[in-house]
Design goal:
Blueprint lengths: L1 H22 L20 E3 L6 E7 L4 H19 L4 E7 L4 H11 L6 H10 L1 H4 L6 H10 L4 H8 L2 H18 L6 E4 L2 E2 L6 H14 L1
Parallel strand pairs: 2-3
Antiparallel strand pairs: 1-3, 2-4, 4-5
């Protein structure tokens, strides 16, 4: 007879807990604000400023999916849309870990005209620096090839103010636009919800172009 009594007591506790939960106010659902592109100091812009379509990408330099986009999709996107003046892409860092944050800071210390090339090199060599514990020397070697000498690299690597500026962009994306993963794309303010392959991105790009 003891077992039914224990079950009944457990059921009573569960019902009481449910009743208490029911009296609690529901947690507010976080709704993203409409995305409006406003230039930020750490933006890296690829393409003509007057292009009718703007793609804003949030990416982490240590993210394999971001590397796949840059290594395999970006060249085709560039040929079809960016080089033809239809699209400009705004790259924004959304670092998922410390190596990505440090790499993003070092990129910002390169000459502005070299930053996009630097990003491409980091994505193409991600397996050499993005997954190991000792990534500083690997990043320093890559930075040297990108024209960033070791003394400048060391200064950027330790620049907490620069890291704060990068993280502020990340926080703005999280707080206002519900960005939580990489890569995330906004095409003329519209969240691109499917994959990052050229075919699916072209649909949203062509739709945006048609509206222009």
């Amino acid at each position: 007879m003891l077992k039914p009594i224990i079950l009944a007591a457990a059921l009573l506790v569960s019902l009481n807990a449910w009743a208490e939960d029911a009296t609690q106010p529901a947690k507010p659902v976080k709704i993203a604000k409409p995305f409006v592109y406003t230039a930020k100091p750490t933006d890296i812009v690829i393409g003509k400023a007057e292009a009718p379509v703007t793609i804003v990408e949030y990416a982490s330099l240590s993210c394999p999916h971001c590397a796949d986009f840059y290594n395999n999709v970006m060249p085709k996107l560039t040929e079809k849309y960016i080089d033809t003046g239809k699209v400009k892409l705004v790259y924004r860092d959304y670092p998922l870990n410390e190596p990505a944050l440090k790499a993003a800071a070092v990129v910002q210390c390169a000459e502005p005209e070299r930053r996009h090339s630097f990003i491409k090199v980091l994505f193409s060599t991600q397996d050499k620096w993005g997954r190991g514990g000792d990534y500083k020397d690997a990043l320093a070697s890559i930075a040297a090839l990108g024209g960033v000498p070791r003394d400048v690299f060391d200064k950027c690597f330790a620049d907490k103010a620069l890291e704060t500026r990068i993280l502020e962009v990340e926080k703005d994306a999280e707080d206002n636009y519900n960005v939580s993963s990489t890569p995330t794309f906004f095409i003329n303010g519209k969240l691109h919800k499917t994959d990052h392959e050229l075919e699916s991105m072209s649909k949203d790009i062509d739709e945006a172009l048609a509206k222009k």
